[in-house]
Amino acid sequence: MSRLVLLLGISLAVLAPTAAAEGGASLTEIEKQVMCPVCGTLLQLAESPQAQRERAFINRLIDEGRSEEEVKDALVAEYGNEVLALPPDSGFSLSAYVVPIVAFLIAAAALAIGVLRWRRGGSGGTGAPPSAGPSGEDAERLDADLARYDL
Amino acid sequence: MVERELPKLEVAGSTPVVRFSVSARSLIAVFAVLAVVGLLVFGLASKGGSRLEVGEAAPTEPLPQLEGRGSESLTDYKGEWVLVNFWASWCLPCRAEAPALEAFQQQQGKSRFTVVGIDTQDLSDDAKAFVERYGLSYPQLRDGNGDIADEYGTTGVPENFLIDPAGKVRLVAPGPVDDEYLQKEVAPLLPGGAS
User: Which of these, A57, A71, A56, lies nearest to A24 by C-alpha position?
Assistant: First the structure.
């Protein structure tokens, strides 16, 4: 019996947040995803008069039964895309997601090429072989210098 | 011994020519540095500039009307004096300022002068309620994302800019204006004023 109660408790604990999320939009969740445009911070952290009005607006839309996306769309209609904490994944704003990925890939490729070249150079594959000593013209010049200075 | 590429000097006739050999790697590095500098400049520029000063041309981008579906810009008021008033319904000083602006507009009449309210970073329903509450009769435009406020270089609300008939800024009032300011500073500049 006690096992059954424990299982029921765990099930409720796991399912409760999911049920709440499916129940509709919540101010707490939306506050984490939108900005207070005047403060320049997440709405979650803002306490300015404008932030209070924004919260009231969100609550009113939630009471009307609007979904999270609908609430965010309504905020964008009022304040523009700047109200979203994360920029939309379309148009020019898409570059906010694409540029870091491309930059990372380029940096990774450059690093890989650099490491490969370094390893080849280290194993003597492409580097010049160590010289056994001067030869030819250099050896003659060295001999001449040694003779001149009587070393 | 490390061999370095040095600039090669060629003499063509009497004119010395310096030719630099640039490797592809150097070009990529230069472009990467330029790209980073460009991004930094873009970031700084998009943060908005300094406040418009007297003598500068006022921005003329159209803005949607607060009530109605049309849009207006300062070019619609070419040849008139315009007092551009940035405000928001959540701004407490704006509440004290609005009746003074309305009274001044009534006093001046609508010939060759108008106050143009620009409601910025505000909810449109709140703004409409504000206009109704204070009985504001002068035109009201919307700047929901604050882009035009940034172009004027405002740092908050309210701020006021008097624009002359040629579209140039003649007065800048950061902060709220009252009847005394309007009578002493603005009225003398208007047609039929004391100056």
Answer: A71
CA proximity to A86, closest of A99, A97, A74, A102? A97
pLDDT band, very low/low/confident/very high, at B18 (cuts 50, 70, 90)? low
B68: left (phi over 0), alpha (psi -120 to 50) or beta: left
Q: Is residue A106 part of a domain?
A: yes
- Give chain B positions within 8 Å (CB) of A79: 121, 144-145
Question: Is this structure's pTM higher than 0.95?
Answer: no
B120 min Cα distance to partner chain A (Å): 9
Mean pLDDT of B21-49: 73
| Number of domain units in chain A | 2
The Cα of A79 is separated from the nearest Cα of chain B by a number of Å equal to: 5
The answer to whether the CB of B102 falls within 8 A of the CB of B137 is: yes
Task: Determine contact, residues A123/A73, Cβ cutoff 8 Å.
Answer: no
CA dihedral in degrees (A74, A80, A81, A83; nearest 10)?
-70
Query: Which backbone phi and psi does A90 adopt, to 5 degrees?
Result: -150, 160
Predicted ipTM of the assembly: 0.74
Strands B81-87 and B113-120: parallel
Chain B residues in contact with A57 (beta carbon < 8 A): 123
Domains detected in chain B:
8-45 (no CATH), 63-189 (3.40.30.10)
With a pLDDT cut of 70, the percent of chain B lying above it is: 84
Higher pLDDT, B68 or B22: B68
> What residues in B contact A84, CB-CB < 8 Å?
none
Domain that holds residue A46: 15-86
Average predicted confidence (pLDDT) for chain A: 82
Distance (Å, whole) CA B1 – CA A134: 13
Residues A76 and A29 grouped into a single domain: yes
Q: For the segment A1-39, what is each residue's pLDDT rounded down to a tens digit?
A: 555 555 555 554 544 444 444 558 999 999 999 999 999
Give residue for tokens 């309620």: B129
Q: Is residue A108 part of a domain?
A: yes
Check if A93 contacts B (Cβ < 8 Å): no
